[in-house]
Design goal:
Length: 277
Amino acid sequence: MGKGKILFVNQELAPYTEGSEGDLLCQKMASNIQNSGRDVRVFMPRFGIISDRRHQLHEVIRLSGMNLIVNNCDHQLIIKVGATINPRLQVYFIDNEEYFATQDGVVDNGKVLTPNIDERLLFYGRGVLEAVKKLSWRPHIIHYSGWFSAMVPFYLRRLNKENPFFKETRTVVNIYDNSFEGMIPNDINRKMRYDGATAKDLKTFQDLDYINLMKATITYAGGVVIASPNANPELVEFVKANKRTYVDYDPDGKAMTAKINKLYETLVGSGNLNNGE
């Protein structure tokens, strides 16, 4: 198998975050895909609970420094890098003093959304793609996990639709037991307009509770991985009813990895992916 470049965009990843199904799931999936011969990079938010010193993170100066406009205001994009030890994965962190460094996660008291969650969603989704372009590492597949990564395919379609860098890039979303209570503020629609959202986009991304946010991102994704037996049944049915290209859950890690690699080849073309073009 040729390499192929796979970018994992996660909400969570062990050992940096702990306490949910997604922590180990995302770590194991990225590791298994890397061990199958792919060239893997991982991005995630640098939440306040993630210690630069303890986890040996350092800022990547050549990638940091640009400002992203969210809600018509400039916000500095800071990129840090670290690595997990066992398994060995290179991990890049999206950071910002307001949106991440001073906030421990995306929910409080279990599953209640933190303030300014809409702007944090937008900043993270856009920030990942801007950082990857500056890294000059063109992925064949962007494979994203967790509802906090849900805006990645929107930005790939809108802000980067004419950008040759991502012309051949396809997206895959994991669905698993990862939810929140309440609603993303409807004001997110107004903020999305600044980034080129069409009327169709705004109709898709409305009334955003967990289910509707995930349905929106599934609609924009090229493929879906049902990554857990605990995935929301309504979302699983939505995937199947809308005839999305998907991989069903398999408890056998080796078999699941083979299915995901096959999905990648289906979306990109086995020749392009396996020859590393």
